[in-house]
UniProtKB/TrEMBL annotation:
SUPFAM superfamilies: Acyl-CoA N-acyltransferases (Nat). Residues 4-162 form the N-acetyltransferase domain. InterPro entries: Acyl_CoA_acyltransferase, Bact_Acetyltransf, GNAT_dom. Coiled coil: none annotated. It comes from Lignipirellula cremea. Keywords: Acyltransferase, Transferase. The keyword Transferase applies. GO terms for molecular function: acyltransferase activity, transferring groups other than amino-acyl groups. This is Putative acetyltransferase. It comes from the Bacteria. Gene3D superfamilies: 3.40.630.30. CDD domains: NAT_SF (cd04301).
Length: 164
């Protein structure tokens, strides 16, 4: 039996809001190449912004009364499959809790939510340098998002519109 409880976050609950803010701060310090604190403006707007997004799904991993991980997800839609897609935008596990299966538990809960929501797939992105996360994702069956019948790989690209 696992020491961890995985459950959907209640974005109206103070404890869950604090857990999300804390874990997002943890992730900002764990960022490859540029560890830094979460900007105050982001902290101030984060919960309200998540609440305003009707596609938000956040799963929290708890050990007793301490949040130790999160999967921040957003529902999308595949025009090619005419079905929902669940994107894992952030997968966060506190450094001192890694290697205990929390990431696997969170991703299993994500997959369960995706299946229950009639999604055709779960998507995510990973930093090329994050070898541990890449191993985990490969172990769980995540592969490059190649399009059947077409040559080449699909890349995740971004264009910043404003400084964060």
């Amino acid at each position: 039996m696992s020491d961890f409880l995985i459950r959907p976050a209640d974005l109206q609950a103070q404890a869950d809001q604090q857990a999300i803010l804390h874990l997002t701060e943890v992730m900002s310090y764990d960022s490859p190449g540029s560890p830094q604190p979460l900007p105050a403006a982001v902290k101030q707007k984060l919960i309200q912004g998540l609440q305003a997004m009707p596609t938000t799904l956040i799963l929290l991993a708890w050990r007793q009364d301490q949040a130790v991980g999160a999967a921040v997800c957003f529902w999308g839609f595949s025009t090619f499959a005419a079905q929902r897609v669940l994107n894992v935008h952030d997968l966060i596990v506190q450094a001192e809790n890694r290697g205990q299966g929390i990431g696997k538990l969170l991703l299993a809960a994500v997959e369960q939510a995706a299946r229950a929501g009639d999604a055709c797939k779960v998507t995510l992105e990973v930093d090329e340098e994050n070898a541990g996360a890449r191993r985990l994702y490969a172990q769980l069956g995540y592969v490059g998002a190649d399009t059947p019948g077409k040559a080449g790989r699909t890349f995740f690209l971004a264009k910043r519109l404003a400084p964060v």
